Amino acid sequence: MSIKEFVQKFYKSDALIDSEIMKTYLHPDVKLEWNSTKGLIEMDHDSMLEMANELSRAYVRSKVRISHILAEDDLVSIRYSHFVKTIENPREEMLLAHFTTIWQIKDDKFYRGYQMSQFS
Predict the structure, then answer these.
(1) How many CB atoms lie within 10 A of CB 87?
(2) Highest taxon of the source (predicted)?
(3) What Å distances lie between residue 75 and 6, 10, 63, 78, 119, CA to CA?
(4) What pTM was computed for the model?
C-alpha cells in the first residue's frame, strides 16, 4: 500500500472517533502541531488517543470528505472536511471543521503532523 492509500484508509475509517483504530496508525513517537482557532495545540501519542476518546463520547458517526491529497517521498498533504453526527441527533450530519494536514510517514505509521483547521 502506498503512503497516499495509507492516509486515505485512515481518514475513511472511524479512527478519528475510535482510539483503538487510531492506535494502529500512530507511531509511538508521533507528534502533531495543530494550528486551530484556539491557537497552537501540540499533541503526542497519548493526547491524540484521548482526543479520539473525547470525540467518541459526543459523536456517534464521523465522516471525512477529502478534496485534495498529494504524496511525495514520505510526506502526504491532505485537505478535508470533517462531518459528525451527534448522540442527540444521529440523523443530522454536521460540519465540524475544514482541515489541511501534512503528515510524515515513518515505519508505516503517522510520525509528524502539521495541521491547520477552520471551523465553519
Answers:
(1) 11
(2) Bacteria
(3) 11, 15, 23, 10, 25
(4) 0.92
Under 8 Å between Cβ of 64 and 83: yes
What is the C-alpha separation between 86 and 81, in angstroms, rounded? 16
Could you read off the pLDDT tens digit of each residue along the chain, which spans 120 residues?
Answer: 999 999 999 999 999 999 999 999 999 999 999 999 889 999 999 999 999 999 999 999 999 999 999 999 999 999 999 999 998 888 999 999 999 999 999 999 999 999 999 987
Q: Give the cell for residue 53.
A: 476518546
3-state SS record for 88-110: CCCCCEEEEEEEEEEEEEECCEE
Give every CB contact of residue 23 below 8 A, 6+ residues apart in sequence. 49
Q: Indicate the Cα dihedral angle 86, 18, 76, 104, nearest 10°.
A: 130
Give the whole-angstrom CA distance, residue 66 versus residue 48: 20
